[in-house]
């Protein structure tokens, strides 16, 4: 007990020991993320380039694939990006959607949102080192199995984790460089393909032969995760202006990075639908430009996996930091390294990745998808609820629609989510259900530890008080 006793006698030390005085100064020194890196972080959180969209042609043929990537962003990406812009500027702090859901539905649901999203982020992240090695396998067969493969996954994870530890500005600029490198080969491919383009090939459609499940899933997963950037909102320079603009540019960049390569690939090469599976763009590149372009596309795909890993891990770890600053996780999660990065969050996210890369993927990924869907629904509810509960609260970026509009905007994406959930198997639902239950149990356990003083929880003093905000909103209404 002597430790507490000292604190009471010598007040200055208790404030130095606590995070209260320290954190504003500590975070002021850290460079904030500017517009261009932010756009590329969003690009990598959502897409990373056209790798993996090949299945849409396989599932539904050229016309539907192209139409899908033109129409779908309006139903799904744009509503999600707009909500992120409004809520992210309303709460410009780390933790993002966890804070939105907490403020609208209370801390229990906020914690569930955090758990589901963090878990789905880490599961997602465990895929990237594996995909990366699958691309290299054709060049280096040894990486296909056994010990070399395990070692390679570990080394990759460690390297990328270290980059994350060194700071978000480094990650942001790395994303810019990787992004340019990943997008360029498709620009080159597009230019080379112009003489061979036959527009009639774009119009091929066979409605009798469409795999709707694969088609929907491919569109859904390639146009997703717009909200991830909100967990970094506290690290963004001038978030009220920068965040909505970056999301706007992000939507355009992502849509173009899908539509152009699809136009090239379906227009310049005679259609063989069954060949359009993951990695087919490298064959298209070889047919159009030769072996060098194929190598570039494969290198771009590998780079893109690393970019997605970096962006996703940043979001996951800053989300844990934001949750700790809100007192939902033990205070130690809010500790920053000298580079301003969340040390424990990064370690937890990296260990999750290493543990999961042993498991078989199909079920986990599908379970992650279900968790993601539940999390999205909670976000939509939080968005509408905040509009109804606090119409006059300060919203630096406000979607120009009323309450009815905000409900209507959430209807198409919600229906889509229901379709994705309905198409999933029972086994997957069971895995997801177990993960949900763990979250339900974890929240009371953490609360119990807080009460018993087994772990230290604290709410960071430089964050706006959610309850107080409510009062202020009411006052502004009166005024």
Give a topology summary.
Elements: H1 2-9, H2 11-17, H3 22-29, H4 35-46, H5 54-90, H6 97-105, H7 107-137, H8 146-165, H9 168-193, H10 212-222, H11 239-268, H12 280-289, H13 291-325, H14 343-356, H15 361-389, H16 403-422, H17 426-451, H18 466-478
List the defining traits of the structure above:
disordered C terminus, 479 residues
Tell me what you see in this structure.
- The protein has 479 residues and is mainly alpha-helical.
- Helices cover 72% and strands 0% of the residues.
- α1 crosses α2, α6 packs antiparallel against α7 and α6 (97-105) packs across α15 (361-389).
- The termini are far apart.
- Residues 1-26 and 470-479 have low confidence and may be disordered.
Report the average pLDDT across residues: 85
Secondary structure class reads: mainly alpha
Discrete helix count = 18
Helix content range: over 70%
Morphology call: globular
Q: Round the Cα radius of gyration to an integer and report it.
A: 23 Å
Strand content: under 5%
Low-confidence stretches: 1-26, 470-479
Q: What order do the SSEs take from the amino end to the carboxyl end, as H and E? A: HHHHHHHHHHHHHHHHHH
How far apart the termini lie comes to 49 Å
> Count the strands?
0
Query: How does the major sheet shape up?
Result: none
In a nutshell, what does this entry contain?
The protein is mainly alpha-helical and 479 residues long.
């Amino acid at each position: 007990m002597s430790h507490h006793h000292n604190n009471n006698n010598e007040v200055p030390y208790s404030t130095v020991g606590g995070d209260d005085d320290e954190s504003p100064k500590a975070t002021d020194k850290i460079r904030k993320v500017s517009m261009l890196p932010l756009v590329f972080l969003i690009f990598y959180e959502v897409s990373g380039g056209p790798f993996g969209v090949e299945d849409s042609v396989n599932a539904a043929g050229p016309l539907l694939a192209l139409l899908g990537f033109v129409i779908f962003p309006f139903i799904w990406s744009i509503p999600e990006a707009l909500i992120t812009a409004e809520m992210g500027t309303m709460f410009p702090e780390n933790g993002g959607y966890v804070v939105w859901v907490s403020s609208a539905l209370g801390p229990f649901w906020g914690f569930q949102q955090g758990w589901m999203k963090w878990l789905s982020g880490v599961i997602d992240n465990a895929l990237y080192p594996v995909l990366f090695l699958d691309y290299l396998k054709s060049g280096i067969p040894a990486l296909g199995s056994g010990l070399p493969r395990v070692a390679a996954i570990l080394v990759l994870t460690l390297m990328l984790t270290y980059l994350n530890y060194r700071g978000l500005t480094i990650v942001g600029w790395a994303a810019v460089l990787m992004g340019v490198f990943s997008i360029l080969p498709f620009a080159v491919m597009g230019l080379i393909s112009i003489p061979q383009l036959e527009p009639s090939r774009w119009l091929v459609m066979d409605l009798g032969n469409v795999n709707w499940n694969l088609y929907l899933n491919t569109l859904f997963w390639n146009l997703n995760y717009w909200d991830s950037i909100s967990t970094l909102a506290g690290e963004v320079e001038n978030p009220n202006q920068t965040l909505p603009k970056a999301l706007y540019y992000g939507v355009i960049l992502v849509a173009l990075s899908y539509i152009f390569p699809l136009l090239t690939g379906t227009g310049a090469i005679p259609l063989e639908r069954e060949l359009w599976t993951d990695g087919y763009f490298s064959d298209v590149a070889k047919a159009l430009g030769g072996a060098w372009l194929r190598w570039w596309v494969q290198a771009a795909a590998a780079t893109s996996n690393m970019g997605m890993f970096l962006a996703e891990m940043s979001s996951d770890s800053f989300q844990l930091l934001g949750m700790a600053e809100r007192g939902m996780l033990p205070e130690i999660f809010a500790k920053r390294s000298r580079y301003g990065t969340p040390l424990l969050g990064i370690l937890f996210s990296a260990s999750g990745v290493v543990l999961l890369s042993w498991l078989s993927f199909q079920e986990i990924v599908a379970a992650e998808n279900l968790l993601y869907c539940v999390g999205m629904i909670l976000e939509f509810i939080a968005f509408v609820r905040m509009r109804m509960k606090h119409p006059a609260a300060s919203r630096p970026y406000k979607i120009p629609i009323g309450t009815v509009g905000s409900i209507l905007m959430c209807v198409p994406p919600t229906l889509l989510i229901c379709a994705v959930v309905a198409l999933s198997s029972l086994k997957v639902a069971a895995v997801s259900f177990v993960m949900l239950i763990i979250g339900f149990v974890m929240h009371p356990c953490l609360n119990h530890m807080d009460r018993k003083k087994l772990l230290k929880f604290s709410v960071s003093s430089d964050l706006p008080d959610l309850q107080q905000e409510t009062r202020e909103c009411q006052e502004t209404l009166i005024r």
